Every structure is written in structure tokens, then in C-alpha cells.
């Protein structure tokens, strides 16, 4: 890792990509720390397994690094990176052969559902926020995959309709429809309580964040 990480707010993704391409490999850590939570959330929404979501993140970062030259000059590095993670996660789901038939007329794919019980509470959260985040995680995890991915990116990550559509390779209209249906399934009373807890759900920080950064940097240095 780099000894002193520059202020992330003063560097654009394009700036960092350019510096990594000139040999400052350690700068890639800034991008990982900037997007670890987003990638974890979208990967976790698809594969619904903490460990596999982390594997998706690692592979997505390594793949992005290997093709970093293609990102040079692009303002939407985050969208491309998220798309890589989405593709990797979907590929893993298909390999597990867990995709199920979707009746005609549905606007997306679905997978068999389990209940998410693993929680990683942030000790800095207050009790109420932690409880709401836990309830939200369980509720979101019960959604069909097509709705879950859209809800995670639009509502929790606060991405735009256009960017979500690009990441998931669907139309903007499909994004709107799936988000509407996701909200309906979550019930109005639960959705009205998401507010402050949504930013803390599916947290990915501390040691977990450090571990991903260390593993990916090692892979790109010695791969």
C-alpha cells in the first residue's frame, strides 16, 4: 500500500487512471477504496454470498487494471468498473446454474431466493440505525435478483437511472419499472423507514476493505 493516500476528493478517476498508467501502480488503491462499497453492494445483490461477492470484487478490479488503457480519457470509469463487476457476478450465478425460469411478460431474470442473515454492524452506528440497516438488508435480499440489483444501485448507491441502465445493460424504462416493483414488494411502511439507514446497509470498510486492497495490489503486481 502507499504510505500516504492523497485526498481522494481532489483527484478525479481520470487523473488516477492516468497516473497508474504512467507507473504509479499504488494509486490504484485510491480507486479501490473509492468503489469498494459500491462493488460489494452490487456483487452481493447478485450472488447473495459475502465471500463470493469479495471474489467478484477482486476479479473485477484485476480485470479493470489489466484493461486500464481502455479507460483513459473516460469520465465514467465508475460505470465501466461497475459493469465489469456485474458481468462477473452474473457469470458466477450462471455457472452455479441457479437461474430460474421467468414467466413471459416479466422484464428481467430471477433466481431462487434465500434469507440473508449475516450482518456486519458498524460499531459507530447507533442502535436504531443498525437495526434498520439489518432489516433493510434482509428485505432487499428477499427481492428477485432483477429488482434487487436495480434497487441496490438506484436507491442505496444513489446512481442515476441512466447509469444504472448502463451498468446492468437494460433500458432506462426497465430500470424505472423494476425500481417501482421493488419498492412495492418491500412494503410501504418498511420503505418509508429506510432513510438514514440506507447509507449504512451492506457496509464494506475497515479490515474487509483493507483486505481487498491488499489482495488486489498483490495480484496486479505479481500476476
Detailed description of the structure:
The protein is mostly helical and 223 residues long. It has one domain (10-222): RNA polymerase sigma factor, region 2, helix turn helix motif (Rna Polymerase Sigma Factor, Chain: A). Helix content is 61%, strand content 2%. The chain has helices at residues 13-21, 28-47, 50-66, 77-95, 127-141, 145-156, 161-168, 172-185, 188-191, 206-222, and strands spanning 99-100, 110-111. Strands 1-2 form a two-stranded antiparallel sheet. Helix 2 (28-47) packs parallel to helix 4 (77-95) and helix 6 packs across helix 8 (172-185). The protein is globular, with a radius of gyration of 18 Å.
Question: TL;DR?
Answer:
This protein has 223 residues and is mostly helical. It contains 10 helices and 2 strands, in the order ααααββαααααα. A two-stranded antiparallel sheet has the order 1-2.
Largest sheet: 2 strands, antiparallel
The number of E-state strands comes to 2
Proportion of helical residues = 55-70%
- Into how many domains do the coordinates divide? 1
What's the N-to-C terminus distance?
A: 17 Å
For the biggest β-sheet, the strand order reads 1-2
Class per helix and strand makeup: mainly alpha
Shape: globular
- What's the mean pLDDT score? 79
Estimated share of beta-strand residues: under 5%
Which features does this protein show?
single chain, 10 helices, 2 strands, two-stranded antiparallel ribbon, globular, Rna Polymerase Sigma Factor, Chain: A, mainly alpha, 223 residues
Blueprint (SSEs and pairs):
Elements: H1 13-21, H2 28-47, H3 50-66, H4 77-95, E1 99-100, E2 110-111, H5 127-141, H6 145-156, H7 161-168, H8 172-185, H9 188-191, H10 206-222
Antiparallel strand pairs: 1-2
